[in-house]
Specification:
Elements lengths: L1 H8 L17 H4 L11 E5 L6 H9 L3 E5 L7 H18 L2 E5 L3 E5 L16
Parallel strand pairs: 1-2
Antiparallel strand pairs: 2-4, 3-4
Length: 125
Amino acid sequence: MAKFTDALFGGRPKKVNVGNYVELDLGEYESGMDDADAEMYVRIAELSNLNDLPGLKNEIYNGNMVIIDISSVKGDKLLIDRAIKDLKQFVGDVRGDIAGLGEDKLIITPSNVRVDRSKVTSDNY
């Protein structure tokens, strides 16, 4: 049986030599970007209660895209349901878009941006 699963799944995972990886200093790539003006920003937010919704909506009114982490309130199904219902209605009113990113994140876009729900794969190119 082990030989069958090894053949099917490519065998057991090989040990990786940590020395093969290089630590990246992202500061090198981010320098100078803070001063640049952009037409749209991707904002990161965390939903902790319903009082956060007006600020999230304001970002969309300003033409920004917002990625919202909902993991901290995941245990409160009522809060999540109310927040998502409110955000869906808002997005419909402003002709934006909303989609889930996994189980812990949402993405909300302004009217000029749509979320493509198909995954990008090498077969697409």
